[in-house]
Design goal:
This protein is α+β, with helices and mostly antiparallel strands. The chain is 20% helix and 35% strand. The longest helix has 9 residues.
C-alpha cells in the first residue's frame, strides 16, 4: 500500500492530515499496522486531553505486542474515533480511512515531519 501524498508522517509511524481550521486527523501508517499484526485493542486520548509531539498518548495492542501511540503534534484532542475502539481491526483494514485514531487542534507542529516519499524511504531503510 502506498502512502498518501497529502499526508505527513512521523518517524514513530503516525500520519497527520493537512489541518482544516487548525484541526488535523491522526492515525498510524499501513507500515505500522502491518508490523503490529492484527490489532485487537485501542486506547486513545480523550476529547479535551492535551497531547505533546513525540510523547505517548495511547496504546495499540495486537496479537503480537503492545505499542505506544505517539502524537506527531502538540494540541488539544477534539475527537477520538469510537469506531476504532469498537472495532480495532479497522486500523489494519483501513489505516488511512476509517481506521483514523484521533483529531487534534494543533498548537505546535514539529519541523521534522516527513513527506510521503521521505517516509517511504525511511521505512525502506
Amino acid at each position: 500500500m502506498s502512502n498518501p501524498t497529502q499526508l505527513r508522517y512521523s518517524k514513530e509511524h503516525e500520519w497527520l492530515s493537512p489541518a482544516e481550521d487548525g484541526v488535523a486527523t491522526i492515525g498510524i501508517t499501513a507500515h505500522a499496522a502491518d508490523a503490529l499484526g492484527d490489532v485487537v485493542y485501542v486506547q486513545l486520548p480523550e476529547v479535551g486531553d492535551t497531547v505533546t509531539a513525540g510523547e505517548s498518548c495511547g496504546e495499540l495492542e495486537s496479537t503480537k505486542s503492545v505499542s505506544d501511540l505517539y502524537s506527531p503534534v502538540t494540541g488539544e484532542v477534539v475527537a477520538a474515533n469510537q469506531d476504532v475502539v469498537d472495532d480495532p481491526a479497522l486500523v489494519n483494514s483501513a489505516p488511512f480511512e476509517g481506521g483514523w485514531l484521533f483529531k487534534v487542534r494543533i498548537s505546535d507542529e514539529p519541523e521534522d515531519l516527513l513527506s510521503a516519499d521521505e517516509y517511504t524511504a525511511f521505512t525502506a531503510g
